[in-house]
């Protein structure tokens, strides 16, 4: 009986000490990890936005999309005027799970860059979505793209060989992201004119 009591006491002490150590390590590492993730995200935001001179971390809007999710939208400005926006997109149609990325557009909704933030696609195949594949979406918008699909589905974008599911998932999710931007453009830009409208107006003034 005494032996059982002794073993129980030892195990209890070991468990308590282990739990305390884990809690301490978690407390000490949580903030640095969160800071590193935030810095990584802001680097991605800077990569996909058009030129800007504002503090984008302070120029955010939180907008609810059609699925009921609240998206963090970063706005770039230059000389006080909106130059574009960056917003997150998540595809649930990846080969191995969700694919999370950022889409950056100018005020007209023309893509300036894509940054893949997180995915579990197959190394060497679907994982290529992080490479040159995403570059082909630059300068595309809903307006200037006839069929927003990969070539295998009759569209304009070249799928990754052997990874059509991943390619299709990203392609279609980008289209949804652009729809989100178009739907909320006034809220995101504050109702400012689009670039093409400004250009048109400038041309008319010259005439």
Q: What do you see in this structure?
A:
- A five-stranded antiparallel beta sheet has the order 1-2-3-4-5, with helices on both faces.
- The protein is extended, with a radius of gyration of 23 Å.
- It has four helices and five strands.
- It is an alpha+beta fold.
- Strand 2 and strand 3 (81-91) form a beta hairpin.
- The model is unreliable at 197-207 (pLDDT under 50).
- The relative contact order is 0.11.
Brief account:
By secondary structure, the protein is an alpha+beta fold.
Q: What general outline do the C-alpha atoms trace?
A: extended
What share of residues is helical? 40-55%
User: How far do the termini sit from each other?
Assistant: 101 Å
Helix segment tally: 4
Spatially, the strands of the biggest sheet line up as 1-2-3-4-5
Q: Tell me the structural class.
A: alpha+beta
User: Helix and strand succession?
Assistant: HEEEEEHHH
What low-confidence regions span 5 or more consecutive residues with pLDDT below 50? 197-207
Nearest-integer average pLDDT: 87
Counting DSSP E segments of at least 2 residues, the number of strands comes to: 5
